[in-house]
């Protein structure tokens, strides 16, 4: 039997003397968290690392981050998460976020790249206090676009569940399997796109930022191959992007995020 990788990492932030600090850090297996020195005045940044170099069938990663009341911090990834060819079964990634009262959280992992014949089951669970603010970004690339790779046999199951004050307020599931190149060829299913991204901002006043985000998405600097749309509802602001070019989508996503956040992306994004 092939050896399977297991990893679990947890980080919690607290407010101490008016500054956000690490309250708890746990890591085991191939899941690690590092805390690089940031720019003066910026909130702390935690970098999640998968030392296995990727995920394949039967592997499991569990990542949890908790923001205490009044804290502000960013959690990102060291590099793109690569989902390799599976010899049996799906790899599993389970991410859990908890954002306390008055806290500001950013969950900014880099893209997930699915290789041909890969299998991934992923889940994101978020618990928000009523006045918490949370920026979430997830992007998925089906194949390595720079190498002309396409996923003709693969599977992705991706579930998002967000709760505000314990009440389920957003539930979203995405499933794609088989020949995803053919699946996404239709006009209603992507028109040839292989790269997809979702930006979600949750805040009591999220709808007030709709025009600003829409302006960023529709800016003249927008990559011509990237299609995008925005919406606001029930304290959520959402932007969706898709493109046949992963490189173009990433460039557009970085441009939008930097303008929306008002500061550069975490350093690992430019490494």
UniProtKB/TrEMBL annotation:
The keyword Hydrolase does not apply. InterPro entries: UreD (IPR002669). One of its GO terms (molecular function) is nickel cation binding. Its main location: cytoplasm. UreD, UreF and UreG form a complex that acts as a GTP-hydrolysis-dependent molecular chaperone, activating the urease apoprotein by helping to assemble the nickel containing metallocenter of UreC. The UreE protein probably delivers the nickel. This is Urease accessory protein UreD. It is found in: Cytoplasm. One of its GO terms (cellular component) is cytoplasm. It comes from Prosthecodimorpha hirschii. The lineage of its organism: Bacteria, Pseudomonadati, Pseudomonadota, Alphaproteobacteria, Hyphomicrobiales. Required for maturation of urease via the functional incorporation of the urease nickel metallocenter. HAMAP family: UreD (MF_01384). Belongs to the UreD family. Keywords: Chaperone, Cytoplasm, Nickel insertion.
